[in-house]
Amino acid sequence: MAVRISGVNIPDNKRVEIALTYIFGIGRSTADKVLDKLGIDKNTRVNKMSAEDIVKLRNEIEDNYTLEGELKRQVMMNIKRLKEIGSYRGLRHSRGLPVRGQRTKTNTRTVRGNKRVTMGSGRRSVEKK
C-alpha cells in the first residue's frame, strides 16, 4: 500500500524520517520536528506504520506546511517580484548568474551551464604582413 501525502507517493521500505524528505518542502529537520510533535518513532518503516499514524501524519503535514506546487509557485513569485523591482538579486536571476555572492571567474558551472571556453593566453596572434 503506497502512502500518499500532498500528492507524493512516499516509499514504503524506508524509515519515516527519510521518506518524508521525498516531499518538496520537507527536509530532515522539518521531518524530525513533525515526528517529534506527533510522537512517532523516526526509525519505523513506512510499511510498518499503523493507519491512524499515517492519517495523523498526513493531516499534520498538509494543514501546517506549504508544500509541493504551492511552495514552487511561491518561490517563482518571489523571484518574479525581485526582477520587477529591479533589485540586484533580480538582475542576477534574469541573467542566469549566481545570486548569493559567489565568485564567477571560476566555479559557476551549474548556474551558467557547462560553458567550457578555453583560450590560449588571451592575446590574438599577430596578423600576416
Task: Please tag this protein with its features.
single chain; 129 residues; Helicase, Ruva Protein, domain 3; 2 strands; 46% helix; 5% strand; elongated
Model description:
The chain is mainly α. The chain has 2 domains: 63 residues, Helicase, Ruva Protein, domain 3 (Orthogonal Bundle); 33 residues. Helices cover 46% and strands 5% of the residues. The protein has 6 helices and 2 strands; from the N terminus they run E-E-H-H-H-H-H-H. Strands 1-2 form a two-stranded antiparallel sheet. Helix 4 crosses helix 5. It is elongated, with a radius of gyration of 23 Å. 10% of the residues are buried.
> Spans with pLDDT under 50 lasting ≥5 residues?
none
Largest beta-sheet characterization: 2 strands, antiparallel
What percent of residues are in strands?
under 5%
What is the string of SSEs from the N terminus onward? Answer: EEHHHHHH
- Number of folding domains? 2
What radius of gyration results from the CA coordinates?
A: 23 Å
**Name of the top-level CATH class of the largest domain:** Mainly Alpha
Helix content class: 40-55%
Number of strand elements: 2
Structural class: mainly alpha
Outline: elongated
Mean pLDDT: 88
Calculate the terminal CA-CA distance, rounded to whole Å: 79 Å
CATH architecture descriptor text of the largest domain: Orthogonal Bundle
CATH topology type of the largest domain: Helicase, Ruva Protein, domain 3
